[in-house]
Amino acid sequence: MVVGIVVTITCIFIGRLVQLQLIEGELKVKASDLTESRTIINPSRGLILDRHNEVLVGSEAVYDLVVTPRHLRNLDTTACAIWAGISREDLEAALKKARRFSRYKPSAVRRRIEPAEHARMAAVLYKYSGFELWRKPIRSHRYRVATHLIGEFAEASADDLKRDREYDRHYRMGDYLGKTGLEAIYERELRGVKGRRSVVVDARNRVRQVGVAASVDRAAEDGQDLTTTLDLKLQQHAELLLAGKAGSVVAIEPATGEVLAIVSAPFYDPNLMLGASRGAAYDSLLHDSKKPLFNRAIRATYRPGSIFKLMQGAIALDEGVISPGTQLACDRSLIGCHGPHTMDDLSGAVIHSCNPYFYQVMQRTINKRSTGNHFTTAARGLDHWKERIEAFGFGTKLGNRLRGTAAGNIPDASYYDKVYGQRHWDFGTIYSIAIGEGELLATPLQMANLAATLANRGWYREPHFVKDIGGRGAPTGAGVRFETGIAPRHFVPIIDGMQNVVEQQGGTGWRARIPGVQVCGKTGTVQNDPLLDHSVFIAFAPRDNPQIALSVYVESSGAGGEWAAPIASLLIQGHLTGAVDSLKQARYLGAVPPMPDSQLAIEQPTETAQQP
Amino acid sequence: MSTRRKNISAHIDWTLLGLFALLAAIGWLNLVSAATGPDTAVNWSLESMHGRQLIWLGLSTVITLLILKIEGEFFIRTTWINYALTTALLAAVLVVGRKVGGARSWFGFGGFGIQPSEFAKFGAAMGLAWWLAFTKGLHDLRSIIGSLAIIGLPVGLILLQPDAGTVLVFVGFIFALYREGMSGFVLVAGFTALVMLVFTIITGATTVNYPWIGPWSGILRFLLATGAVFTAGIFLGRSMTRPRHRRKLTRNLVLWAVAALTFSAVLHTTMAEVLKPHQRDRIHVLFGIEVDNPGANYNIRHARIAIGSGGLTGRGWCEGPMTGFGFVPEQETDFIFCKWSEEWGFVGSALLVLLFAALIIRIFFIAERQRSAFTRIYAYNLGGLFFMHLLINVGMVLGLAPVIGIPLPMMSYGGSSVLAFSIMMAVLLRLDAERFSVLR
Fold first, then answer.
1. What is the ipTM, given to two decimal places?
2. Which CATH number characterizes residue A442's domain?
């Protein structure tokens, strides 16, 4: 009997061992959950540089406080809440949530702790078993420029993570990624490859063994550096001049299509969007009536105004409907005009921005292929005209390197058929597009590209923002050459006109004059009822072998010559000579165009709408 | 005769000694691993845990050899000195002992410590053997009272420390008592009490929605079922026994039922009303009942995971991360079986259990071949002690028995246990070797 008991117990024990060690595989999984842990080694993110290798965006760290519920011991929630800098209720709620999520995996208690506070917390971290401070690489914008172009680097959303799970499973909850701009487009290149290291931890979560699973271990690969086409000095200068205003500046190197500066104002300090202040900052930016988050340079579509006349002239010359010497009367019964002129050739019409001249020029272009019926002639002519305009990049998503690049609007026959009905419109209905008004819409980037096309006398390279990525040069397709199909000689009278816009006594762009530099420009004043007109200026310089072509668009400010031209000249001067007319700069620096509410208090603009 | 006595090695039970030595060797190697994490090299210094254990093993070997040289008669004659000495140590430890983990059970000598309760097992085993050999079995009140007193004195002193685990080991003497004529009544009563205890606690922790009464503890259902079982037993018993025995059987069963139900009711009331929640939790954990506090069954849960992670062949010597990296508390003492299981897997664990079983069965086998009643009873006592240690320790680690901290003989770290078991084993070997010289 005694032996029987011993044998029975032995059998029970061995049976139990069979159950635990041979049948229940779940225990093995639990054991590896407890003892094995995978450390992720974050690569450092690629830098973003300007064209002269100045670092625009570097990396910095913030910290997340995370808790692993399993390691919590004797937690004094009151003391811990004070230490963590949150309320006790928040702490308890976070702990509860963490427990519900997983007892073994860490969850965040507080995010984006600044380095200074991290130092304070790290000193007494040992008192709070179960808590860890995780380093999170974030961006540091050294010069706080080109916010819209560079874009936002922020925590991955649930949607981002979901998309990533189907893709390459790079991100974990709480990871950061490029959300907009270049940060988003070149995310894969910038982020690098995460390293992995499997470790064995002990009961206190200290790493005890490494390299236990060499097959899954790998070293981190740092992200690739991205060299933009931006010129830091020009970009800074442009932002300085646009501060306090709404509008945009786009500057292009005509020979290469490289964007030297791209500003959308109002802009914001990108460093505000990092760290702990992000939530509040984002909210206030989102609800700002001036829409600082909106990248006007590529997304805003404005009526281009009088700068459009330059293209009309070039196309008409190429179509052969006028010659440089063609004189047309300033017939103000056709369309309003301004200034003391009665009869102009092409250059003169550019200088005086003569509305009736370009009315007649476009009329001739449209009516060149007459069908005998003025309705169908207009439709046919307009469709042909649209093709010519699109060759300049208008009406297309020019470059289309950035998400949200707008195409603007170049109306064609079907567009007006929808508006007025087929055979219910002719040139007399749509003439306002002749002078860049009406249904035309264009982005500041397209306007700058027009300046570059004029500078090149008939061709442009697609505007782009990246000069080099990871040492492999520009991304494929960047800077492809496009032809307008217009011979260089047709641009000469127009460029003559542009030069005189700036240099001739009484030219509308006289404020853009720079001693010693031949600036070719054209002002535009875009009707913006009931507010003040938009001030537009496009220019390139110097006239021969142009180094810079740009567009300046200042919303609701006044005439083109008043605001946009002097800003453009300061930028050109700074870029070409390295010095600026400080007196002129002082006049426009921080000067805020009159606000609509205070319109009555300021001098009314002398020019009427749709002029210069 | 004299040649036989002198040539003692010819009669030593080498099987038992071999099993015991093998166990000691396995135990020591396992301790080396317990002192060495998977990330560290083995430290061969005598200062280390296994180094100290080696000293104890060396001392035990010397003492074993000495004991084998001494005539068995010496031990029989000095039984009471032994008993008095070990009991006196138990008394003394209550006064001058070191308090460790809430119990005053240690004498401290510098770095080493002595646990007198380990040696009290030897004293009690000898004392009981002497008494039952003297009274020629357990047949009258005197022999019962004497036996209870011999066991009761050290048990009482150990309870004062308090060390409930060690007390439970003394239950192992029931083998000898049963062998020497203990009534089956005690066993049946013990069995009934055990069944009632388990079911009372398990059903007491559940809630049942009764008609009319509403939600109440599931104990009521169990008590009704118990009553029904006894009632059925009475009717069944009546139909199966002769008429003249029926009255007595009915009376006995009714008394039995009343006693069982009273026991259950009192136990449940104690659980529900007297114990504090954390104490109740602890008892519930023992019985595998889910409790809200996840920390309550930390040890046993991790022990189970460590054993399970061993798989068929284990992780290898010194390679177990669960035990090596502190996930299993007390992995070098009470939970030493986890260490072995994690590193040697099912093969090793089953082998170890079989080794223990073989040792215990061999001891009982040796007991039955004795002519001397003293030696027989002593062997039974020793076998019982080994068995209880195995039952409680391995049962606990495997999650089959309550969490009660007692060492696994020759496996757990601790000098007193090794020394005491070695002495007990040596005395048995010597007494057994003299079995042919004993006159009936």
1. 0.84
2. 3.40.710.10
